[in-house]
Amino acid sequence: MQPSVQTTVVETARYWWIVLVTGLTSLAFGLVLLFDVAKGAEILAWIVGLFLIFEGLVEAFAGGRTGRSRALAVVIGIVLIAGGVVVISWPGVTPLVIAVVIGIAMLLGGIGRTIASVWLRDAGWGWRLLGGLIETAIAIAILVWPSATAYVILFLIGCEAIISGIVQIVLSFQIKNGPDAIAVIEVSAP
Questions:
Q1: 7 contact partners, CB below 8 Å, separation of at least 6
Q2: For the purposes of burial, counting CB atoms within 10 Å of the CB of 37, is it exposed (0-12), middle (13-18) or buried (19 or more)?
């Protein structure tokens, strides 16, 4: 094995615990979302809110350097910070807003596909028409029942967080054992 690769593996292995902590945090967050959706929504709101505040601060202080671009960066930063504060102070609305945004996007997409399929009438237009109508119907259901949609979204986020956490936990131990694996390869190599 080349010395630079070996050095990289050894250096990376020193920080295996960061991946482990990230995996455990993701696993815990996913379990909270699955078993206590309200608490999970609150945690998600805090994460999103803090991210928006951080992005707003970065934009306001490091954005555009002169003239209009500087003023625009400050305005964008203030809007992001305000959005972050609203999300943190009103956590119950965050999943609903996500559901409504998804519903509106799907509604516009479904209507657009329906119109395009009828207008163009090329090969497969009937299938696109059917897809557009189904997408429009699902979007209307999402907009009529956004709280049910929010729970489904939170459930799916919870499932993804659990899977991601497990993968990261396994990966952390593989990273930790990386130098040992290199030693075994070097010993068994001719």
A1: none
A2: middle
Place of tokens 């729970």: 151
pLDDT digit string, tens, across residues 44-79: 788 888 988 999 898 888 776 666 677 888 888 899
CA 144, chain centre distance (Å) = 25
Residue 110, amino acid: G
HSE-CB of 132 using CA atoms within 13 angstroms = 18
Residue ranges of domains in the chain: 16-176
Rounded CA separation 187/1 (Å)? 11
- Among 34, 11, 31, which residue's Cα sits nearest to residue 153? 34
The amino acid occupying position 12 is: T
